[in-house]
Specification:
alpha/beta; Rossmann fold; 8 helices; 45% helix
């Protein structure tokens, strides 16, 4: 019997795949059988990720915010590796700052990185998926898309946008065989999160205290969720936002 969770013979593109959650998504997709191409701005980090994960992982240096190169990126990857079956929009940035101190330029930079570039790349990849009547696009959202979290107004706005974009694109493209879903990580133990939490013990205690599983998640928890949503096991799932949060969203 065929394994519905297998990604054998699939080609995946993971933005920001060189570190943190993106790294583990890449590793998990590869372990499930996919050929994975990762992108990012820092070539040394991408090279290190490819070397550490091993076979069937490749990289392309790219800045997702340079929208003029989005079409070129998709065409280049397609020519080198084949048609993209899975897109994981993982690249993103954050900034913690009182809302009254956030400049227009800072706000727009986060929206450009976390939302505008996600739409642009999804659109270009979807054009080819639609013509082949198959594909899975996965957004990386955030619990910030569910909560009102102080001092991260631009990030929260961008992830709320991702939540809406996921539904809109799923409504638009699912009839062509292209599924669009999101993963909303809870508090996941990455270097970025640990730095943020260590500088704000009250927020760390609050986050942990309302998480029913009483622990923070691991990056591979997000990777395993991505494998599921990319696979045939999720063939009738589209337009959802899967919370991987240890119950944080329903904790009291």
């Amino acid at each position: 019997m065929t394994n519905p969770f297998s990604l054998e013979n699939k080609i995946a593109l993971v933005t920001g795949g060189g570190s943190g959650i993106g790294y583990e998504i890449t590793r998990c997709l590869r372990d499930a059988g996919a050929k994975v191409i990762i992108t990012g701005r820092r070539e040394n980090m991408l090279q290190e990720a490819v070397n550490n994960i091993g076979d069937n992982v490749f990289y392309e240096v790219n800045d997702v915010t340079d929208l003029n190169k989005t079409t070129e990126l998709v065409e280049s990857i397609t020519q080198k590796y084949g048609e993209i079956d899975i897109l994981v929009n993982n690249a993103g940035i954050n900034m913690k700052k009182p809302a009254v101190d956030v400049t227009d330029a800072e706000f727009n930079n986060i929206i450009q990185t976390n939302l505008t570039s996600v739409f642009a790349l999804s659109r270009e990849v979807a054009k080819r998926m639609i013509s082949r009547k198959t594909g899975s696009i996965i957004m990386i959202s955030s619990m910030a898309g569910y909560y009102g979290i102080d001092r991260v107004p631009a990030y929260t706005a961008s992830k709320s946008g991702i939540e809406g974009l996921t539904k809109a694109l799923a409504s638009d493209w699912s009839k062509f065989g292209v599924r669009v879903n999101a993963i909303a990580p809870g508090f996941i133990e990455t270097a970025m999160m640990q730095t943020a939490m260590n500088s704000d013990p009250d927020r760390m205690n609050k986050a942990l205290g309302r998480t029913p599983m009483a622990k923070f998640g691991k990056p591979e928890d997000i990777g395993h969720a991505a494998v599921f949503l990319a696979s045939e096991a999720a063939s009738y799932i589209t337009g959802v936002s899967l919370r991987v949060d240890g119950g944080n969203a329903i904790g009291f």
